[in-house]
Amino acid sequence: MDIVGNVLPQVLKDEATEDKGEMARLQSFVGAIAVADLVKTTLGPKGMDKILKPTGPGQEMSHITVTNDGATILKSMYVENPAAKILIEISKTQDEEVGDGTTTVAVLAGELLREGEKLIQKRIHPQHVIAGWRIARDIALKRLRDISTENDINSQEFHDDLVKIARTTLSSKLITSDRDYFADLCVNAVLRLKGSSNLDYIQIIKLPGGTIRDSYLDDGFILKKQITIGCKRRIENAKILVANTAMDYDKIKIYGTKVKVNSMDKVAEIEAAEKEKMKHKVDKILKYQPTVFVNRQLIYNYPEQLLADAGITVIEHADFEGMERVAAATGAEILSTFDAPERSEQILGHCDLIEEIMIGEEKMIKFSGCKKNEACTIVLRGASTHILDEVDRSIHDALCVLITTVKNRRVVWGGGNSEMQMAAACEEEAKKVQGKQAFAIEAFAKALRQIPTIICDNGGYDSAELIQNFKVELQKGNITYGLNMTDGTIGNMSELGVKECLRVKEQALLAASEAAELIMRVDNIVKCAPRKRERA
Ligand code: ADP
Ligand code: MG
């Protein structure tokens, strides 16, 4: 090999290098499996947490993250191996698409490659492996869809299912002991969206202090700002104008403006002109007849005074998200020019009551009885910011899954049930297929079965025995059975209430098999030379 390598003329230029055939494939397998193994121990309700600690100077301890969320761990990893990057990418996509199953997808892809590697060692060509995997994937997907059930959106069963799904998602998280409490909270929040899938309308406010149990869902909308001094603190039947406009009158907002004057009087003149302009703007705003004025930008004393004098309550410097949410909740339009007061009725937002409230030590503004009541607020309390951040991530997962479920409505049993059933389907199929592909289909089944195996192992249970018992139960026709992770036995999931959203499983299956296929196809890794900067 070496001699050939030396004799071959160098094809690639400068710093570019190439890894070929076996070496390239091995590198990819090793990278991907290493990444999957890293998150493996966090899988399932008894999975362990990881501490992520930034390196380098200037990174204080306060930046550490304690988490159990696959996507969060993988996202913060800094890897060079290209296959490892692919796995990180699919986990991220899973997080964005459905919000949960981020560990599952990476682990499944890793296990597929582990099985794939064995096949390659048996001298089965990657193309046969891929062809087999494709058959297996379709069979698994079909079985997964067949075992899923659908409920009517307004039925009590569906509501119960949502709570169960939220509980399953939360059970692998820090707040597992409070999961019933948070499951209800998340379900109520999502149902308030009335079918809209915009997660932005659920605002999460994190306030250190108190305990996790002090967290609650506020039926109004809370803005983390204060009402400007000198205005009314309690407004009933509010008409709200939401704006994004400059209200700082002494700044001339054009870059490069230079004004030369030769006396103080002239300066005063300019100031007076600016003031006049501001007054004009305020007059225009007043024509809309709002009772509350929310602006994204700062408001200076003079316009503030004018507005307050007109009896309007002013809220300034509402950041962009806050402002958009206020607009969504109250049904207001966001204005930056004020030339259509005749449309005021459509433009202004409405709510029954605006008042200042105290949460912990902080003053905030609460909007109750909003016209478009779509937005709501979850106030999270907890002993430290690390806990709050992890609770936030967990709640986010649950909310995403719930929104997906409301859209899709199909559910499957959790506790490894769906994976075991998919594996069984693949094995049945493997018996019928002729040729080498059958090995690949069997390998697919094995990889799927690794998910419940790992969940068991992470709980400290005897996985070999449990998985065998699991198989037997399914064979007997107990198709709702799964892992009971409190007792370390096989139990009825419908009694334990462990349910999952079909979309999460579907997406995990598709993404993992796609990524594994992609990595399996690799037979060459070319490192491109960095592009040099052109000299100017
Ligand atoms: P992911 O990031 O992939 O969602 P998790 O750590 O949340 O990983 O683990 C999810 C797996 O744990 C799913 O396969 C699910 O069926 C299983 N699981 C969750 N809760 C339970 C439970 N209470 N009993 C048994 N299995 C559970
Ligand atoms: Mg999960």
Automatic annotation (TrEMBL):
Name by which UniProt lists this protein: CCT-beta
PANTHER family (alphabetical): CHAPERONIN (PTHR11353)
Highest rank taxon of the organism: Eukaryota
Compartment list: Cytoplasm
Record's function text: Molecular chaperone; assists the folding of proteins upon ATP hydrolysis. Known to play a role, in vitro, in the folding of actin and tubulin.
Keyword match Cell cycle: no
Organism: Paramecium sonneborni
Example of a GO MF term: unfolded protein binding
InterPro entries associated with the record: Chap_CCT_beta (IPR012716), Chaperone_TCP-1 (IPR017998), Chaperonin_TCP-1_CS (IPR002194), Cpn60/GroEL/TCP-1 (IPR002423), TCP-1_chaperonin (IPR053374)
Keywords of this entry: ATP-binding, Chaperone, Cytoplasm, Nucleotide-binding
Coiled-coil features, chain-numbered ranges: none
GO cellular component, one term: chaperonin-containing T-complex
Subunit note: Heterooligomeric complex of about 850 to 900 kDa that forms two stacked rings, 12 to 16 nm in diameter.
Family: Belongs to the TCP-1 chaperonin family.
